[in-house]
Amino acid sequence: MGKYMFFIYLLFLISKVHLKLTNEKRESLLNKLTKKISLDSLDSLENKFKSKRLRDTIDYDPAQIEKLLQLYDFPQEFNFLEENNATVRVKDQGYCGCCWSHAATSSLAYRYLTLGIDVDLSPQDRLSCYIRDCDYGNYLIDPELNLIKNGTLTEGCLPFSSYDGRTMEPCPTSCKDGSEFKKYYAQNAYMTEDYYSKDTFYDIVLLIVDQLIKKGPIVAGIDVFEDFMDWHMDSEKCRDDVYIYDEKSEYLGGHAVTVVGYGFLNNKYYWLIQNSWGEEACDKGFVKVGFGQIGVEQVGFAEPYIPQEGVIPKEVPVSLVSLNEECDITVKTTSSYDDWENTLDINFRHEQKTKDFNYQCGTNDILQKGTVLKCYYDYMNYYAYKGFYEFKSSQSLGTENKFVLDNTFSGKKFQFWGLDYITYIYTEYLYVSEEGSKVLFLYSPEEGDDSVLPQIYANKNAVSKPLSDCHRAPLPQYDEYMSYIYCNIKADEVDYFKDNDHQDDSPMVYDILCGFKEDTETIAYKLDKTKYPVFRVKKLFYPETHNVTEDDIFTLVVDIEGSVTGYKQEQMFLFLTNIEKNQTNTSLEMLCSTGIPKEVGSDVNITCSLNIPRKKTLLYDDIYILPFNLPYFTQVPYEVIIKDTIKGEEPHNDEPSSSSTFYKISLSFILVLLLLF
């Protein structure tokens, strides 16, 4: 009897064993499930870490999760913000597609709290100083690497100002709140490589839980579906239940969020997510997302970096080797490349304007231990002027090195001879089927010279055809840097698309930098009307009141031509409008939703909303839709034709009835879903 009692007692002891997650185990999980990313490896790994749309749900056993947490002595629920008495800072990205920046800076700021530093970091820094684009989209790892390479200012120093999707503050040299102009940096960035396998799912849960408790919040990339949007509009459901994908809602896009904790509710484990859609969304800005749902376990994270005091930087001598035809430069050093531990920043200044070409030296090429190092100019993030640029200055982006540039840089200059370039083309995909369609672009005009427009080409297999009928658009400037240009598509250009483009890539191109032609991501298609529809705009009806907010509905009347057989899901159109009040004009966007048309026909209603800042009211006398439309979500082919300005009309009783089912999607939510990945 005694030996049986001994074995029972032994089993009891074994059942009570709690392991500690040792540093060795933690490193093992990191090595198995993640890739440590450094500035040196960014170039070679960028393609590997492009986002995947993770629609598959991972099934798991809640009992296994419970045992796992017990085994490593982790609590069944954890909220980093509550445990660390953190100041909760839920922000609102508005109409700017910068979820990646909000998520990365929120995560890093909370992690600084573990070092006793309570700081609010600015998501505007990456936008104003490097990207200058609310439609940029991003990879999960990119904002983490930016925080390593460039750091970020505080929110007080550089407040978020791009809520409207247009405003882009200049990169500052001093703080708006008068505080110290100081950057906060990250180090040691990681990103999960492969969590899709059920065999690795429990390990990735263990890794995330350990990071949350020991290090702090992390960034997650998620897939957003229609039911996720609906969930955010029900605060009671957000508070009392866990979001589980309904397996049928349409995919809307990728999104980045901050994971701040985990828990168990209604027999479901969940990750506690801090979103960047404002405190009014979901449960005061937070949402509980079930384990294994919408790709939430694809994560990235970095650690706070505190420079060591008293460390003497290593001196690295640098010589200029050459400038090439694309305005790139190469440099070399007589020192060992092992001494090159951070990034060299080199500036060439315009001979007449305070405008720089900024080069950064110190990426993957360093690992090759070659004789020269190529330095890259991130030309898509800046606005260039033609003329000569001369070497001006250099600095180290980091504290490990003091770069010493020799006299080979002195007086060195190059000429940017091209026209002012188009910053980007304002559509993702463009379908052109007939003469008179209008293509809208944004471009940066030369100061004091608005008469010369950039040359745009439709390019196919190295055969370029200039678009011949281009003009300044009669619109206010897009922002302080950019203006609109549009091109009327001529009959011979339609024929060109028809003869040279069969829904293969046929990018628009334009001259940029030192004779280098840049492809855009925009593709001109000749639409196949036997499969896809053309929406021809006829009328606009505005609400009864001329005192409107973002929630007021406008009605656009269209004829549908062609076929809807290949048109399977809802599409969004973004129109430019002129709003007139007391003989003063204002340009705004109007976002319209088609729903899913059942058949082609005339007088089909489309619901629209004006892009008015939240909680603001707009007064107008008249409203006009301009003949420029911007396809918004182009997931299947379609074309919108509006050839003339259309003046809005008062609603009346015989307003056309709808021949289809239409939906109104919340403008403030849908505009945040610009693709990150």
Structure notes:
- With 677 residues, this protein is α+β, with helices and mostly antiparallel strands.
- It folds into 4 domains: 23-42 and 55-305, Cathepsin B, Chain A (Alpha-Beta Complex); 314-416, Immunoglobulin-like (Sandwich), CATH 2.60.40; 424-525, Sandwich (Immunoglobulin-like); 533-670, no CATH class.
- It is built from 13 helices and 35 strands.
- The strands form 6 sheets. Strands 1, 2, 3, 4, 5, 6, 7 and 8 form an 8-stranded antiparallel beta sheet that branches.
- A hairpin with a 2-residue loop joins strand 5 and strand 6.
- Helix 2 (23-33) crosses helix 9 (198-214).
- The protein is globular, with a radius of gyration of 28 Å.
- The protein starts with a helix and ends in a 7-residue tail after the last helix.
Summary?
The chain is α+β, with helices and mostly antiparallel strands and 677 residues long.
Shape: globular
- Count of distinct strands: 35
Q: What percentage of residues falls in helices of 4 or more residues?
A: 10-25%
Instruction: For the record, give the distance between the C-alpha atoms at the N and C termini, rounded to a whole number.
Output: 65 Å
Strand content: 25-35%
Q: Could you tell me the mean pLDDT?
A: 76
Low-confidence stretches: 6-18, 40-55, 364-369, 379-383, 418-427, 655-677
Number of domains: 4
- CATH H-level superfamily of the largest domain: Cysteine proteinases
CATH fold-type name of the largest domain: Cathepsin B, Chain A
CATH C-level name of the largest domain: Alpha Beta
